[in-house]
Amino acid sequence: MRRLIALTLALMMALTLAACAASNTDTADTTGAAAVTGVEDGVLTVAMECAYAPYNWSQPDDANGAVPIVNSEGNYANGYDVMMAKKLCEANGWELEVMQLDWDSLIPAVQNGTIDAVIAGQSMTADRMEEVDFAGPYLYATIVCLTKTGSEQASATGISALTGTCTSQMGTIWYDTCLPQIEGADIQTAAESAPAMLMALETGAVDFVCTDMPTAQGALVAYPDMMILDFAGSGDDFDVSDEDVNIGISVRKGNTVLKDALDAVLSKMSADDFNKLMADAIAVQPIEG
């Protein structure tokens, strides 16, 4: 009988200890998962194309505050996105690390944890919000068109007056949402990048392109023979929502700690602050874009 009681007590103690251990493990795992931000090492790893001036570009030195591109030896990143990333890091006491990725690789990289955030001129669309969380906006971008000075499109006062061939960058609201609103448009295959889009216009492959105001302003630095068609306030403009023109910073879904840290800084900045920083970026943009 004593042996039976002793065995019973031992079994009960073992079960209790196991339950406590499982409870402690669960708590640690849950707490750990909630606390993971990606910047526990004090380094914010940010991805961008480094080929999307004035948002971001690549250059051969650290002039004008450029930072090294970690996966492109000997090259440095600069532009509005880099300038904004530096402000965010300074406010949070982080170091900045910039990685160069193709446009279509940006969201997968933040989803799988290769990077901590994407700062690359992304519109805060509903489709993207299903894949990532967004901090921001960190810019409000008006939608415009670019054409060549002296072209038939140069005198257009609204989108209904636009005719001819056109394109824009793939995977953007410019191509997917805006160009289809132009009834007279002959939409060509989407360009793989912003530079490719601008080159299509410069070489005469298309008559006009659709983009946002910062990209258009930056384009004029490299291509002074282009002109901006801004139809804002005309009553004959693109029909876009806030999600189309609000530019945000994407982080991994559920990474509220990092999102909140970024938003705490961005919420103290105004549209004028954003525009001034963009003007600073355009002022130091290389001619080749």
Molecular structure report:
There is one protein chain. This protein has 289 residues and is an alpha/beta fold. It is 38% helix and 24% strand. The strands form 3 sheets. A 5-stranded mixed beta sheet has the order 6-1-7-14-8.
How would you name the CATH homologous superfamily of the largest domain?
Answer: Periplasmic binding protein-like II
Q: In terms of per-residue confidence, which ranges show pLDDT below 50 for 5 or more consecutive residues?
A: 1-34
Oligomer: single chain
The share of residues in extended strands comes to 15-25%
Indicate the structural class. Answer: alpha/beta
Output the helix-strand order.
HEEEEEHEHEHEEEHEHEHEHEHH
Helical region count?
10
Briefly summarize what is shown:
This protein is of the alpha/beta class and 289 residues long. The protein has 10 helices and 14 strands.
